[in-house]
Amino acid sequence: MAEPDFTATGVRIGKRLRSLTRAGQVRISDGRFELLTSYGSEIDSAPVQTVRAGKPWFAADDRALAELNGTRYRLTLADHEPAPGEPGPPTVRRFIDAVRSASGRRPGA
After folding, report:
1. Does the residue 107 lie in any domain?
2. pTM of the full predicted structure?
3. Could you tell me the CATH number of the domain that includes residue 15?
4. Domain ranges, residue 44
5. CA-to-CA distance for 86 and 88, rounded, in angstroms?
6. What is the model's pLDDT at position 88?
């Protein structure tokens, strides 16, 4: 199995007003976007080209939206980058750029 293009752990994943997991995982690997529970069970997955990711203008800095298979998920990532050499979840900007670059769209656009 190849190394994932992007991984974020400790992510709060919600759907509408319902929280699905407080310590989930977001992974982009081999052209697939996956949302996983803290136990590694799949919540949802789709080809990364079909995923829409963004940040609502009204949300806090650590919040992002991901829409896959017609379902919108709220993601809460870290609000700051970890120190060099220290593990930690990436920022929302890195998440959005990773989705765009993995799907062939230009990052930052």
Report:
1. no
2. 0.82
3. 2.30.29.30
4. 6-102
5. 7
6. 57
What is the spatial distance between Cα 105 and Cα 109, in angstroms, rounded to a whole number?
A: 8
| Amino acid at residue number 80 | H
Residue 51 CA to residue 65 CA, distance in Å, equals: 10
Residue at 27: amino acid letter: R
Name the token pair of 51: 């995923």
pLDDT digits (tens, 9 = 90+) for 21-53: 999 999 999 999 999 999 999 999 999 999 999
76 vs 107: which has the higher pLDDT: 76
Instruction: Answer yes or no: is 109 within a domain.
Output: no
Q: Is residue 108 part of a domain?
A: no
In angstroms, the CA 30 to CA 33 distance is 9
- Compute the average pLDDT of residues 57-74: 90
Instruction: Count how many domains the chain has.
Output: 1
